[in-house]
């Protein structure tokens, strides 16, 4: 029994049931009449979604994962939980001028829980959660698509009827296997998009439940469900900023579908000067106005709180991040923005050319109408305008509902990435298409239904649908494999974006990390050639050249980098290191000071400045610089070590001992600190304590020749000659070229020989 209850987007109960039956009949050649019940359909969709991306479960942390997870202190227990609400997605304070203003505390909280449960930075746990989230979202899509295709009809017990099981199953499968989702699922930082999508869809479904009951006037409202929907929208926004757009989608759903606002009917009445326009039914609907007030107030409140939290205003992006937004001409900006939209549409239609990054010259600007790429703009708007006209003006209520909601899901979640309201820090980003792909799947499924209705080659359409599903599944498996390691991910981008300087830079960085400096230099040079202002590539290339003792070219590159970006602190520090190696001490000191000026909390720079002062025999300045480094970074082992060694070498044994003990309290397992303090204690004739530290250091690092050599010297002084002989020999086995150890060993042997002669 179906009671007389609400049916979204149709004139009455029976026509809607009939039309949805027709749509599902049109898809009967794809799914048989004995279609799976909802529970089994969800299990199938969830299983397919998991299988598509299961290959990424044991992948590494790649690309942005390093900054958002591995280097993010907000994941560690030492950071108070309250700091998550004041930091951005990358762990920086939101009030900082360098913050990206990506406020996603709930996503970071899930990373922190992952870190705690995994016992550290073990990527498997992080990847498994992402895969399961995508599977759960795909299952939820069955219900969402059921609403979009079948409308809202409820039984007398308040249970929603599934009036389009075939259409919702097909659309959910298309969503589950779409390759454009790989970045969100296989890249751990994509969890922000997954969590946002989860709460976005829950908010939408919650809003739909506000129309389960009717009152005498036929108005449908439930304040509880509307408020819950707004709350879930706020939760979605705390996972990723895109989540707030669900309120706009709910409003469109309410006005155009629930309120049955018919643009064609309004236009016709305007043309005929119909007096009924003076009091449209929509305006007389108090429930609708109340819900719109709640949605508007909720959205405004969320935006206000978000703006207050953001602090210093919107983030500052550079031209390489989004070249079109820096174009002088408004026309050039508009043309290129629309071209970017067409590329996003193409990625949904044909997700074959996928890339982890689309910036840095990957997509050259359109600067003339003679550029053939303007055809893409025309094609995009031709299709969009046609769909919008059909969605708003069609006399078929069923068709209006599906196209309206399909376009709503396609366009509204994409708006924050459109550059219309503010500049974004990317050109094209596959991750932002996770939610818009819902709208694409609606339109594609509706298209298949319409096509099968008007053609006799139904088996051909079934084969096409099956082919799309299988090809997309295969593409997901292949692409998930590419996301398993940075080397595969970066190299896969070369064929898609060969002009992208960042692709070459990342390949070079990956090679440098593996020790292949020669190949890394080649890719860094190509990155600089493609983008002559790429300061990070110049900095990394300069570092490698410095290590290879090609100091002149390294200085030229680093000097150019700081001229292009005067506040580039790391380049200033590296320039100082090179100038120090060139014995240009005054210039080196100035470079270090510039680095500290632009990054006040820069322990590594203070450490290098201390080394410069030590070379110049400015011992007090060196100690002060190293002390600053340890204040900023208490675990800075090198700075502690250098302080101990300098105090030791200048005869300040008591002070050296005090510094060494302080350092070991902060870093108790650092064998190099144990070694340095053991040397000081040995000179102070505290042999027993010195021996214990030497042995502990050797246990931690048994193959360090100097550890055995200095322990041998301690035993030599202490009179334990047999032990001294043993450790001298071990040291020389590990490093036969150690001249000091050879000399001391020779002295010991002569002493032992003299002792033997005396005994004789």
From TrEMBL:
TM helices/strands, residue ranges: 131-151, 188-207, 219-238, 244-267, 288-307, 374-393, 405-426, 432-451, 460-481
EC primary class: transferase
Domain of life: Eukaryota
EC number(s) from the headed UniProt entry: 2.4.1.109
Topology class, membrane: Multi-pass membrane protein
Keyword Repeat: yes
InterPro entries reported in the protein's UniProt record: O-mannosyl-transferase_TMTC, TMTC_DUF1736, TPR-like_helical_dom_sf, TPR_rpt
Pathway(s) where this gene product acts: Protein modification; protein glycosylation
Entry annotated with the keyword Repeat: yes
PANTHER family reported in the protein's UniProt record: PROTEIN O-MANNOSYL-TRANSFERASE TMTC4, PTHR44227
Identification of the protein by name: Protein O-mannosyl-transferase TMTC4
Organism: Mandrillus leucophaeus
Lineage: Eukaryota, Metazoa, Chordata, Craniata, Vertebrata
Gene, per the UniProt record: TMTC4
């Amino acid at each position: 029994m179906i009671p007389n209850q609400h049916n979204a987007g149709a004139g009455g109960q029976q026509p809607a049931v009939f039309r949805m039956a027709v749509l599902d009949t049109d898809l009967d050649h794809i799914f048989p009449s004995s279609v799976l019940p909802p529970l089994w359909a969800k299990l199938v969709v969830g299983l397919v979604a998991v299988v598509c991306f299961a290959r990424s479960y044991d992948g590494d942390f790649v690309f942005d994962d390093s900054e958002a997870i591995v280097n993010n202190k907000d994941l560690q227990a030492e950071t108070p939980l309250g700091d998550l609400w004041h930091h951005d997605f990358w762990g920086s304070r939101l009030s900082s001028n360098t913050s990206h203003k990506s406020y996603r505390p709930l996503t970071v909280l899930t990373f922190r829980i992952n870190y705690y449960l995994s016992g550290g930075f073990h990527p498997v746990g992080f990847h498994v959660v992402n895969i399961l989230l995508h599977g759960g979202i795909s299952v939820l899509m069955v219900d969402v698509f059921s609403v979009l295709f079948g409308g809202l009809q409820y039984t007398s017990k308040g249970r929603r009827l599934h009036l389009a099981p075939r259409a919702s199953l097909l659309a959910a499968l298309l969503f589950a296997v779409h390759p454009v989702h790989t970045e969100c699922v296989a890249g751990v930082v994509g969890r922000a998009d997954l969590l946002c999508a989860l709460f976005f869809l829950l908010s939408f479904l919650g809003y739909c439940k506000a129309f389960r009951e009717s009152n005498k006037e036929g108005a449908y409202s439930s304040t509880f469900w509307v408020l819950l929907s707004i709350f879930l929208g706020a939760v979605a926004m705390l996972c990723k900023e895109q989540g707030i757009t669900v309120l706009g989608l709910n409003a469109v759903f309410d006005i155009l579908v629930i309120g049955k606002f018919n643009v064609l009917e309004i236009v016709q009445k305007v043309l005929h000067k119909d007096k009924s326009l003076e009091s449209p039914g929509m305006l007389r609907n108090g429930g609708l106005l109340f819900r719109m007030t709640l949605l508007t107030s909720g959205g405004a409140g969320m935006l206000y709180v978000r703006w207050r939290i953001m602090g210093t205003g919107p983030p500052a992006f550079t031209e390489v991040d989004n070249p079109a937004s820096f174009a002088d001409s408004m026309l050039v900006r508009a043309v290129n923005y629309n071209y970017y939209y067409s590329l996003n549409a193409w990625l949904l239609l044909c997700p074959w050319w996928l890339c982890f990054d689309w910036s840095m010259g990957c997509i050259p600007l359109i600067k003339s109408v003679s550029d053939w790429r303007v055809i893409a703009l025309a094609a995009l708007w031709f299709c969009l305008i046609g769909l919008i006209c059909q969605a708003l003006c069609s006399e078929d209520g069923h068709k209006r509902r599906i196209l309206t909601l399909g376009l709503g899901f396609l366009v509204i979640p994409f708006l924050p990435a459109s550059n219309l309201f503010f500049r974004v820090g990317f050109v094209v980003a596959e991750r932002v298409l996770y939610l818009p792909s819902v709208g694409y799947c609606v339109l594609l499924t509706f298209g298949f239904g319409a096509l099968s209705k008007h053609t006799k080659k139904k088996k051909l359409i079934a084969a096409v649908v099956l082919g799309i599903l299988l090809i997309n599944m295969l593409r997901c498996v292949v692409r998930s494999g590419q996301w398993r390691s940075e080397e595969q991910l970066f190299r896969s981008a070369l064929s898609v974006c060969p002009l992208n300087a960042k692709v070459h830079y990342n390949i070079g960085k990956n090679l440098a990390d593996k020790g292949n400096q020669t190949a890394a230099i080649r890719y860094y040079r190509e990155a600089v050639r493609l983008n002559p202002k790429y300061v990070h590539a110049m900095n990394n290339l300069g570092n490698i050249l410095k290590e290879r003792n090609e100091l002149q070219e390294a200085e030229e590159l680093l000097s150019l980098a700081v001229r292009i970006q005067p506040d580039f602190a790391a380049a200033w520090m590296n320039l100082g290191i090179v100038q120090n190696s060139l014995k240009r001490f005054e210039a080196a000191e100035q470079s270090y000071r510039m680095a500290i000026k632009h990054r006040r909390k820069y322990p590594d720079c203070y450490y290098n400045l201390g080394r410069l002062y030590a070379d110049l025999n400015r011992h007090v300045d060196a100690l002060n610089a190293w002390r600053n480094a340890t204040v900023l970074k208490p675990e800075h082992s090198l700075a502690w070590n250098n302080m101990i060694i300098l105090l030791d070498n200048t005869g300040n044994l008591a002070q050296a001992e005090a510094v060494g003990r302080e350092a070991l309290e902060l870093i108790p397992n650092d064998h190099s600190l144990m070694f340095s303090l053991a040397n000081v204690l040995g000179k102070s004739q505290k042999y027993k304590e010195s021996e214990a530290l030497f042995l502990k250091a050797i246990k931690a690092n048994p193959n360090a020749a100097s550890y055995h050599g200095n322990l041998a010297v301690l035993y030599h002084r202490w009179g334990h000659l047999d032990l001294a002989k043993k450790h001298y020999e071990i040291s020389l086995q590990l490093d036969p070229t150690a001249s000091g150890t050879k000399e001391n060993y020779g002295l010991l042997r002569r002493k032992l020989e003299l002792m033997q002669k005396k005994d004789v």
